Structure formats: structure tokens, C-alpha cells
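As noted in the main text, all predictions were made from sequence alone. Below is one such record, for Amine oxidase.
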Amino acid sequence: MSLKTVLILLGLALATIFALVCVLLTRERTPRTCQHLPPEQEDIEDDQSLVFADLTAEEMSQVVRYLQGHLGVPLVEASRANPSDNCIASVDVQVPAKAEVLRFLDGGGARPPREALAVLYFGKQAEPNITEYVVGPLPAPAYHRDVTVHKYGGKVPYHRRPVTGREYTDINALIHRELKKAPQFLTACCESDGTNLVTLTTAPRGFKSGDRVTWFVLFHNVAGTGYYLSPVGLEVLVDHGDLHVSRWQLRQVFYNGRYFTSTGDLEQEFVAGAVEVVRLQQPRADAVLGSMKPRSPPGSPGPLQFEPQGPRYSVRNNHVTFQGWSIAFGMNPNTGPRLFDIRYRGERIIYELSLQEALALYGSNCPGGMSTRYLDGSFGIGRFAYELVQGLDCPYTATYVDRHYLAESDTPKTNQKSLCIFEHDSALPLRRHFSDSQSFYYGGLRKNTLVIRTISTLINYDYIWDFMFHGNGAVEVRVHATGYISSSFFHGRGTDYGNRVGPHTLGTMHLHHIHYKVDLDVDGQLNSLETQDMEYEFVKDPWSRQNTIERPYLRRKRLEKEDEAAFPLNAPMPRYLSFVSHNPNKWEHPRSYRIQIISFAGKHLPTNSSMERSISWGRYQLAVTQRKEKEPTSTSVYNQNDPWTPTVTFADFINNETITNKDLVAWITVGFLHVPHAEDIPNTVTVGNGVGFFLRPYNYFNEDPSVDSSDSVYFSSEQDVGACGANPLACLSSATTCAPHLPSFHFGGFLNL
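Prediction:
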């Protein structure tokens, strides 16, 4: 081999080595750019938030075992229990009293004992009743105490209990036995022998305390689609109030505008030719109204949100922290999401922020629709928050949290991945300015928000519950409604109560009203309520006395009594309403948080209605009361089945007590009227169907706290805006190389049904 050849090969080898070194150096730099960085750590100890934590599955099982061994009465598992049996209806955490918790969190006091609240149905007693026990201490229960009378002022009658799954099963069996008495009618009206018909419950159940009589609406059942849009015109009234199932009866039948005493009566009149029948065909799966199956092949993927260096928030147990925010989160199986000890920059702003109730009130010219006033807490807003679909219900890379509950069973159940937490880039500036005069610069900050979300499926409707925490210290609470509309069979003057959305389907008008509890602690527990609004004054121009000017001025007012702070639904309300501290900020204004409500609520039930007091929280878009341990919730799961003698009456909370320098609670109602229309088919979209409220700092700080955000952007005309060191936005091109390896899609939400 010649010397020349050797030198050439040596040169090639050196070039190859140099290239490999460059590649290796580049590869070594890439992980440094894309490596996951630990989120900011807050000063609050994670284990302190456990004072609010939901029960673990093991704790629930311990409570069940304790009750089975210490009550001295036979207990039947609720999923098998008859009304004449005793059973454990539910077990949830008993959140300690606020004073105890604050002594522990703020005063160095002892951790409050961990306790559970167990609800039992005692049907096998001389006087059947509902009893609530506090059981503790966990994890090794040693005592139980009956708190029913203390909480409600007396025993809770047995007829107020929510309907169990076993009770619905027995009702359906009764209905289908009765349908067999009208075989010719069913064939004519519905191409059915009854086996392909399903029922939908209504509520409440009767007209007076003690009633347990329910209208059930019948629909064609089509696998893989929402049956709620396929009514057949048949509705039945079932009396299921007796403790013995064998004594339950079908009281009335409704079909196409007429009432009959029984299915046998309906059959007899049909055979005699006295019934006008609308002949329906069994819907086909490929042509049914409610099908959500895609009609087009998949297109190209849409935008995907991801965190180049991993999540910037931290979740541990029931505690999440994010850029100065600290929140303890949980889920009540009845009332749904609840948050506690919400702090920003180390200061508690909200002690409790929790959903209380969701009301859906319908109109129709059919008995089932016209009598429906669903109080969803009695069905289980938290219990029916199922697994979330990653990439659609929440971002694909969100953090998903399992929730446990025990209801109508002696064994805890788990709704996997039923709560999600994520940072959301809203693609909107939180604030910005482009300067085009004097000096030229741009300054801004992206609106990135921490979101805690869960979604409840309550029969036909899906409610998306969002709690959002912004970089300027504001909290946003929002609910969106989607899912299927409920419908009635279209007949007569049906369009007085909605719109026709199918050949025989009336989309029935209804309202959604949602109630929240907000226990604000603004710069301490003791707050007052202040309103501000504008007025005009007519004054002589100081520089031109012959002319006048209309000058707006600010009218401030301190509200001193609860009656002043109860603002009727849909009535004008001060545009600025704030919880104020007695401490000033730097500019001598009281440190405050403003409540700003975004709502399109329908009309509240008239106060002369026999059941109005059970939902009297709906009278007010906002009511501020003194906080009391004996007023923990605005309603009760027992109000649904006895709204005529409500177990909890919110209107009684408002008794004109002083609200100056007191621990105060804001009770907020939001909602909207929904008149279903053609575009609600196949189901309702979230666009325009979202309501909620903001809790915004108002002179709480000395300036906008987001100025300290590390996400801030500023560059001037004198800078190289393409330099990563001068402009963080110039660094994004390298960040795109950090796209995460997404885990395989998985969904197990059908396994626990």
C-alpha cells in the first residue's frame, strides 16, 4: 500500500472519528435539554393534606367489618337487600371540624382523629329509619356514635332513602310482568314483546311526604347508542313504597296522551279499537337518532399538548402544587368534587370549595317529563365519575388519579383514572402589550393554568367539572353539560315544551342549576362583604362652568347582615362583590377577593310550590352566610325522595345574622336554560353550555403576582429576538425535539359497571 493511500485512509478515519464525536456530543446535550425537571416544591408538608383525604379502600373495608361486628343487628349486603332488610348504604370520610383542622395546620396542634361517616338503612326495625354513624379512629375503629339527630334535628324517615340498584331491578321486573298483559298492543305500537324496551326513572316520587310512587318512561333499546331519544309513548306509574316487594303495584299507565288504570285496561281498549296507536318500528342501529359512531374515516391527528421537560406540577396523595398554588383534592360519592386548603404563595385563600348539588328540572306534556326534578346528588355525582378517556376527556399526558367509593355494597369499588390533573396552555395571553410609541418593545405572559377535572355521567347527561388555578392568583370554577338530552314522546301540543328532534321525539325543555359552597378565608378567617358599582353624577365642568359633564363615580357599600347578602336568582347584582379583610395592602385598600359569576340560569321554581323549600338554595345566585359546623351542606341526598319535608332547607341558613368580621361562606348558584333543538342530536355539545364563576384577587396583592413568573416574555427593538437567551420563545424550536414517548392507549372504564 502506497504512502498516499495510507494518508488518505488516515484522513478519512480522522474525519469519521470527528463526526462521531460531534454526534455523541450532540446526543449528550439533548437529554440535558429534554430531561425532566422536578417541579417547584412548596413549603407545605404533603402529609398535612391527608387530614382531608378520601378514605382508602382498606379503610372502607375496616369500617364495614367493624359495623358488621358491633351493631348487634343482621346486615344484608345492599346489593342484595330488600327494603325490609338492614344494610350499609355508604361509607365516606368524616372531614373534621374546621377549628380542629386549623389548630393542626396552623397552630401546631394534634392531628384530628381520622373518622368515617357510615349511612345505614334499617328496614328490619319496628320503626324503619336511616341512621348515620361516625366511626373511628381509623385505621383501627373502636367506637361509633349516632349523629343523625345532631345533624338533622331528628330521625330521618325511611321513605327518604335514595333508590338502590336492587330496588330498580325489582321495579323493572314488575314492569315487564305487567307489560306481558298487553301483548297485542305492544306488537302494534312498538314491534315488541317488551323485552327490547328499557325504562328511565323520574323523580321525585309522588306528591306528599311518605310517597314512593314513580313514573317510569319506556324507550326502545338499541345496543351501542343512547336509548333516551327513542321513546315509545308508554309510561307507567309504580307504587314501590311497601317494605315487601310482593305488594308493589302498577298504579297507572299513560300512552299517547291518554291515561289507563292498568296494562290490562290498555290492552282491552286497544283490542276494542278505542286506542289511537302510533306504529313504531324497532330502530336500526345504523339509523337510530342517538348513534355516536363516526360517519367519516379518521383524519390526520390534531394538535397535541405535551410538557417538554415533564409536568411542572406535583401530585402526591391528595395534594397538588403548581407555581405557588397548593390544593388538597377529593371526591364525595354523592356530591362530587371537593377541594380544601387552597393556598397561593403560602397564604390560604379558600378553606373549602365544593360542589353541593345539580338540579335538572323538566317540562313536558307527558307525566314522566313534567314531574321530573332530578337532584343528582341523590344518584351519586362522585360515584358515577367514571374513567376518563386520555387524549379526549383530558390531555393524553395528564396525571390520572383513581378514586375509591363504597356505596350499595360491602366491598369498595374503584373508578380508575376518574380524576385528571394537567397544565393547560389556553393559547391566549394572560397579559400582553406591544409598544409602538416612545420605545418599542413587547411584553407578555402565556395563560397557563392548572386544571383539576372530573366528569360525571348521570343517566343521560355528562357534567364536566373543572377547577382552574391561574398565574395571577385567580381561581376559576366551570361546569359544562354534554351527553344526551332526555325526551318525551311527541304528541298534541308538545312544542309548547320543547322542539321536535325526531319523527316521534320531543326534546323537552329543562334547566340545569348547579350549587357550590365557597368558604373563603381572605387574609385570615374573619372577613366582611363589600360591594362596588358605578353611578353617574352630573357636575359643572370645572373649566367651563356653563357646561355639565356626566361623571361616573364608584359607589362602595359594606353589607352587614345575611339578608342584604342574599341576591335573588337573575336579579341585578352589584358588579363588584368582594370578601374583604380588615388588613390593607400597600395602597391602603382592604385585601380582598372578588366573586364574579358567569351564568344564564333559568327561572327558579315558584316559592309557593310544595317542593320548593328542598331546593331553596336555587332562589339565590349568591348568598353569604356565617360559617357554621351545623350547616355543612346546602342540601341532602334525602331531599330528592321527600322534597315536601326537606331534611336540609337552605333558606333557613339565612336569618339576618351579622356578616361583619366573621368567618363567611359564599353559596353560589350557576346554570342555564336548555331548550333542545335539532343540533342536540345525536347529543349535546359543550359549546355555549358552560357556566361558572371566578374568585379574583382584588387589592389582595400590591401588584399582579404573575410578574414573578419565569414564563414571562420581554424583548425590545434593540435586542436580537431570535436569541434564546434574550427571548424564551426562541428556545421553543429545540423544545420540540423533546416530544414524549406516549404510552399505549388503555381504557378499562367498562370493567366496573
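The longest strand covers residues 413-437. The longest helix spans residues 3-34. These features were considered when defining construct boundaries for the mutagenesis experiments described in Section 2.9.
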